[in-house]
Design brief:
The chain is built from 12 helices and 12 strands. By secondary structure, the protein is of the alpha/beta class. Helix 1 packs across helix 11, helix 2 crosses helix 11 and helix 3 packs across helix 4. The protein binds phosphoric acid mono(formamide)ester. Phosphoric acid mono(formamide)ester (CP) binds next to helix 2.
């Protein structure tokens, strides 16, 4: 039985399989109306969401299954101090699969160690968001006709933007991908992605501050919101919040077939005037998210039926009693968790949040 915690949990071949299933669901939805009859998805959302939670719920309902869960931490026993692991163990008795969003980095990983059913990471703090990446991959595939030979611009909050981290991990495995990383200096890509993914796999990239200069060379432009909820200093957010705004004027300098993606929600980083441009793919992306989550639920439930035993966590290379100092890591609030790190590109990194210990 498998979970989806990082997009790297799936091979490129498995991602191609999910895309094929999603395309089939889009074309022949009636074939899947009974596919998850008598199965239940638990949506455990400790943090706000519109697209991810509702598309997961729509996905399960359109597969003929049931949904239960909560949409805020305060309406669960987390408010009384229950641990993520105990929550996951309990919910394993009520559902067949869990989708979890949590503000602490590494929380869905901890849940997958406690649960006896598959766990899907629906976003953990500023760390990873693998099911958004599934939506992004289907969108790029549909808009561009390929997942290789692309110049991809990532613009905005690359530090806290978890969708960016997961998308880079995914796209780095396709041929001839280059990235243009467009951000203010304060919001550049964290080391565990820049060194641990891009440098490790010799993926070409440039780090720039100007969207105007970068836009003409791009095949895909992935805009992101400045993540107000991740800032410790509100004044710093106020200073950086309007760093980038994609306007119709800037789009005039882009390629005729460039695709504009955004995980949404948008605040003001894309002018609403861009919405009518045929290159604006971000609302099509939200529909693609539902198809890919349907394909994912089918895959994980099918695998759980074939192999109901939870896979042992691979602890090879773990070094114990390493102290993580990231205040946003799950190990800071759940102190009974083992503190451990593993060596990645010359640095020991926390097993939960991947920050240097
Ligand atoms: N893209 C995304 O995760 O949106 P929500 O926060 O609305 O789920």
């Amino acid at each position: 039985m498998r979970s989806l915690i990082s997009i790297l949990d799936f091979s490129v071949e498995e991602l191609a399989g999910l895309i094929a299933t999603a395309e089939d669901i889009a074309e022949h939805p009636e074939k899947y109306w009974e596919a998850c009859r008598h199965k239940t998805l638990a949506t455990l959302f400790f943090e706000p969401s519109t697209r991810t939670r509702l598309s997961f719920e729509a996905a399960m309902l359109e597969l003929g299954g049931n949904v239960l869960g909560f949409s805020e931490a305060d309406s669960s026993s987390a408010a009384k101090g229950e641990s993520v692991s105990d929550t996951a163990k309990t919910v394993s008795n009520y559902a067949n699969i869990i989708a979890m969003r949590h503000p602490k980095e590494g929380a869905p990983f901890v849940a997958s160690r406690g649960a006896t059913i598959p766990v899907i990471n629906a976003g953990d703090g500023g760390h990873q968001h693998p099911t958004q990446t599934l939506a992004d991959l289907l969108t790029i595939h549909r808009e561009m006709g390929r997942l290789d030979n692309l110049t991809i611009g990532l613009c905005g909050d690359l530090k806290y933007g978890r969708t960016v981290h997961s998308l880079i991990e995914a796209m780095s495995r396709y041929e001839n991908i280059r990235f243009v990383l467009i951000s203010p200096k304060e919001l550049m890509l964290p080391d565990y992605v820049r060194i641990g993914v891009l440098d490790k796999h010799s993926i070409p990239y440039t780090e720039v501050t100007s969207l105007e200069d970068a836009i003409p060379a791009l095949d895909v432009l992935y805009m992101t919101r400045i993540q107000r909820e991740r800032f410790d200093d509100p004044a710093e957010y106020e200073r950086l919040k309007d760093s980038y705004v994609l306007t119709a004027e800037k789009m005039e300098h882009a390629k005729e077939n460039m695709a504009v993606l955004h995980p949404l929600p948008r605040v003001n980083e894309i002018s609403v005037k861009v919405d009518d441009d045929p290159r604006a793919a971000y609302f099509r992306q939200t529909l693609n998210g539902k198809y890919m989550r349907m394909a994912l639920i089918l895959k994980l439930l099918e695998e759980a039926k074939r192999d109901p035993v939870r896979e042992a966590i691979d602890t090879d290379g773990w070094v114990y009693d390493q102290v993580c100092r990231n205040p946003k890591c799950i190990c800071q609030t759940e102190q009974e968790l083992p503190q451990a790190a593993k060596l990645v590109e010359g640095a020991y990194r926390c097993i939960y949040c991947e920050q240097k210990v």
